[in-house]
Amino acid sequence: MNHGFGTWAVMMIAMMAPAEAPSVLRLTRGRTAFLLGFTAPWIAFSLAAAALQLKLHEAGLLDHESGALTNPWLAAALLSAAAALQFTPLKRACRETQPQGSLAGGARAAALSMASCGALMLVPFATGMSLWPMALVTALLFAERVAPRQWPVSSLAGALLAGAGAWLTLQGA
Questions:
Q1: Per DSSP, what are the bridge partners of residue 62?
Q2: Alpha helices, H only, the chain
Q3: What pLDDT score was predicted for residue 3?
Q4: 88 torsion bin: left (phi>0), alpha (psi -120 to 50), beta (else)
């Protein structure tokens, strides 16, 4: 299964837009500038993800049907990295940062978002390029943004991702 840059770009926007929508709607001005600043780095991330997918495919590390990593240890490492980021101060900072309605404000928000959520965006390499994992990640990102701060949404997601990574490790053993 071959997904190119266009697919990754659409997927990134579709997955990040619901999570950012509440913050963007709170902006009283500068929404367009913020969105441009936020979207451009994610488009660049999409280009990198598509290039990574191509290299993994060429190396025979992706299943031709599902697009998932064929090596369960690599998939487990990816899920474990995504899990670990869920527990970091970086994740909390991303959840709590208020957007600034400017191009630079959007770029700063995107940089923080990529640092704390980038591994989540690569989960389809571990699960396969299907709709359900993308929908789950999108729901998680949205819940992290709208849930009350005292709710442990990120920690619960991190625990589930770590469990999935451990399960894949056992599958590879």
A1: 69
A2: 5-26, 31-58, 72-85, 89-96, 103-121, 123-127, 131-146, 153-172
A3: 67
A4: beta
